[in-house]
Amino acid sequence: MISNFTDLGISEDIAKAMDDIGWEEPTPIQKASIPLGLKGTDMFGQAQTGTGKTGAFGTIILQRTEPKQRLPTSIILVPTRELANQVSDQLTDIAKYTGHKSVPIYGGASIEGQMKQLEKGADIIAGTPGRVKDMINRGILNLSKIEIMVLDEADRMLDMGFIEDIEDILKAMPRNRQTLLFSATMSEDVKRLAGDYMIKPKEISVSQDEVVLDLTKQYYIPVGRRNKSWALTRILDIDKPKAIIFCQTKKMVDILDERLTSFRYKVKAIHGDMPQSKRERVLSDFKEDKIEILIATDVAARGLDIDDISYVINYDMPEDIETYIHRIGRTGRAGKEGVAISFVTTEEEYLIREFELRTEMKIEKRDVPEGEEGTKDTIRRVVDYDQLSDVYGMVKFEINLGKNDGLGKVSLAEHLIRAAKIRDFAIGKIELGPESSVVEVHKDFGNRMTMDLPKVKFKNKRVTVKVVQN
């Protein structure tokens, strides 16, 4: 395995650490950027979280700088506290045999604690612009010996209004340095930043779509809102994945967290309303396999960088391709295959076609997995009339009454109105057969059809009703 990385010019110490982590082969961004970076070339790469870029710039830093120096020799600026911690943790793993020390610096945590870490010595700083600038202004952080500067997720930092902080930080370090910039998009602002602060940079573009989709098997499961929990627990019980589950809202995250916890799944949740310290504990527990399932909103999971997530489950379907790609990018990482499953209601199926066109990849239809015979579902499946209805809200029911019972279409409709209190306007097309008939009834009266109608006999005949699945 080590040779897959040493072929790029990576030292054996770093390659061995990558092997210990479980990385099997370099990702496209690593193949494209590491050989250039090891020559000292400035570069800006188009790549998102999940493409292996931390391993790319981490390798360049570790191989081109000496450990245990008096002052930091490398700094990585990132947009969020979570990403600062994750980048620092991953660099610590890669530096297992080199001796480099990485320290995360970010707001919302004790500045005194971070000062103490710096006093003990730090070769690499992974920090958010606001806290880094604050420490520079206080005279705590000295960047005069920086040899390599990394701007990670540059477009997000500019969107968040960090441009002035970034420029002030860049001015506080030597001009004669190597600068690496990574961004998901190459906007004019990002290009200007590269032009102003980089020396003859090389541009590298690796499509996030290609990287993620090559490693991730994509599926969708048609399932109505009322049966999403049933489908989810079937997958968790049968496939037993280490999974991140995405919901659209904080309320849905909390509801699903409470529901799964009540059934004793090893699950925790994160969203923007939670204190930063709690979010960090949850992410740490997930990374260390103390929990198997993480439920999150898109905002809370932004920048999440954990290599062994086997499944991403879109409990709620995202409405745009960028969010979809970001979500499924949490799996299929570091050369390992992943699985992405999206729960899709009838009215959302057009999104599957749209995403297939945009990514030029097939998203395969999959059924909810079947358990072993005799096993009980953790959550019982219910009839979801919303999912079964057509565009007019009509659902088909098969009834064991027909022409042989002396019924016509009008008399059958009248029986439904009397016996189950179905409103006349809620009854649609009737297909009358000899022994049984199929009747369209509006979804709002579905329970009356299946629960109330069988309670009333027709001419001493027991009536049975079943929903006709599409």
Automatic annotation (TrEMBL):
Pfam families in UniProt: DbpA, DEAD, Helicase_C
One GO MF term attached to the UniProt entry: nucleic acid binding
Motif Q motif, residue range(s) on this chain: 3-31
Entries under InterPro entries matching the protein: DbpA/CsdA_RNA-bd_dom, DEAD/DEAH_box_helicase_dom, DEAD/DEAH_RhlB, DEAD_box_RNA_helicase, Helicase_ATP-bd, Helicase_C-like, Nucleotide-bd_a/b_plait_sf, P-loop_NTPase
Matches recorded under PROSITE patterns: DEAD_ATP_HELICASE (PS00039), HELICASE_ATP_BIND_1 (PS51192), HELICASE_CTER (PS51194), Q_MOTIF (PS51195)
Gene3D superfamilies in alphabetical order: 3.30.70.330, P-loop containing nucleotide triphosphate hydrolases
Helicase ATP-binding domain sequence ranges: 34-204
Keyword Nucleotide-binding: yes
EC number(s) on file: 3.6.4.13
Record domain Helicase C-terminal: where: 231-374
CDD domains: DEADc, RRM_DbpA, SF2_C_DEAD
GO cellular component: cytosol
Top-level division of the source organism's lineage: Archaea
Keywords: ATP-binding, Helicase, Hydrolase, Nucleotide-binding
All copies of domain DEAD-box RNA helicase Q, residue ranges: 3-31
Family: Belongs to the DEAD box helicase family.
Protein name: Putative ATP-dependent RNA helicase
Organism in which the protein naturally occurs: Candidatus Methanoplasma termitum
Lineage: Archaea, Methanobacteriati, Thermoplasmatota, Thermoplasmata, Methanomassiliicoccales
